[in-house]
Structure formats: structure tokens, C-alpha cells
Amino acid sequence: MLFKYLFSVLPLLAFVAATPTPVKRQAGRCPTFALQDYAAFQISDGVAGNAEAEANAVFVDPFAGCDLATVDADSLDNMKAMREAAEDAETELFNPQIDAADGAAADSLQIGKIKNKVLKLTGFNQVLRIQAAQGEDTADKLAEEQTKLDKNIATDEASAGEASTAAVGGGGANAAAAAVADAADDDEAGSAATVSSSANAGTCTCAN
């Protein structure tokens, strides 16, 4: 009887012993984040309702599964510049074009502006998360900006399916590259000014 029991159990024990133990993988090094002009990464075309996912695809998804503490300085500068380009598009493109339009055209531009707000705030928050991972205290600022982001995501979702129009023009199209070039000039000049964490993130001047 004992022999029969061992004969049936031993193969099972051998199988369990041979099964590899799952290894908890640690987050790896983050990839380089490439600089893009505003026209290449704007999300205001199409329809409302999915701005959160579209903005995440630009600023958040490229860092999925990696350790934000490993984001390099150039990538962080590129993110700041692109967020600033989205903010410039709001003030220099969307606002005057909405003022000049009426009816359905104005409504569609306004929806596009909300999607652009989601984009710029998502970029700002991701910069703050990276800075936090690298040792800066950004918790209060991140909480403040997350409240603004949640508000604009809700506004976008409330208009789901409605036409959204991107603002066109040159005002914000090359702002990202220009901002990085300006930063490089400042570095070459040996600027030693001390800036706050929010300034390092590219302070968002939007009220909501």
C-alpha cells in the first residue's frame, strides 16, 4: 500500500520541483523620450471623450514598466518643452481662434481646447512624477495639477462623440524645439540660477 502511494505521489513532487519559481521583475531603465513639434503630438483632432488615453499615449505610456528615476535629463527637457508647446497652443492658437469663430466652429474648437488642456496637464504631471522619483518634493504641486487634470478629463468625457477641432497656425508648432534650443543656450552661458521644482517642470500658468 505504501509503495503504491509513493508511486503515485513521487511524479507529482518531481513536477512541482521542476516548475520554476516566478521571479518578480524590477522596473528597468526608461527609454529616451524624443522631442516632437506640437503638430506631431497634438490630440485635438477627431472627437471628444478619449483625451485621457490619447494624452497618456504621448506622455505616460512610453514610460510604462520602467523606473522613472532613470529618465535622463534630455528626455525630461523634451517633455517640458512639449508641455510648454501645448500651453502655447492654448494661449496663442485656441483662444484667439475661438474668439473669432461662432456657432458649431467655435464649439468644436472649444472641445479641442479642452483636449489640449488634458494633454498639457498630463505632460506636466508626468514631469512632476519623474522629478519625484528622482528625489524632488513635488507632492503638493502634483496634487494641485491632478485636480485640474481630473476636471478637464471629466469635461472631455461629458462631450464624448462631439466633433473636436485642432487649432492651426505656427504659434505653437515649433515651440518645443525652440524651448530646448533656449535651454541649451542657457547651459552654454553657464547660468547658475536656482529654480524651484515647479519651475523645473515648466510652471503651468493655466488656471484650470
Describe the structure.
- Residues 1-18 form the signal peptide.
- This is Small secreted protein.
- Keywords: Signal.
- It comes from Kwoniella dejecticola CBS 10117.
- The chain is 61% helix and 4% strand.
- The protein has a domain at 42-62 and 72-167.
- The strands form two sheets. It has a two-stranded parallel ribbon. A two-stranded antiparallel sheet has the order 2-4.
- It contains eight helices and four strands.
- Residues 12-25 and 184-200 have low confidence and may be disordered.
- The chain is elongated and about 50 Å long.
Features:
208 residues, mainly alpha, 4 strands, 61% helix, Small secreted protein, signal
Task: Quickly count the helices.
Answer: 8
Share of helical residues: 55-70%
Mean pLDDT: 82
Largest sheet geometry: 2 strands, parallel
Radius of gyration: 24 Å
Strand order of the largest sheet: 1-3
The assembly state of the depicted protein chains is single chain
Q: What percentage of the residues does DSSP assign to strands (E)?
A: under 5%
User: Class by helix and strand content?
Assistant: mainly alpha
Question: Helix and strand succession?
Answer: HEHEHEHHHEHH
Give the CA-based shape. Answer: elongated
Low-confidence sequence ranges: 12-25, 184-200
**Total beta strands:** 4
Distance between the termini: 77 Å
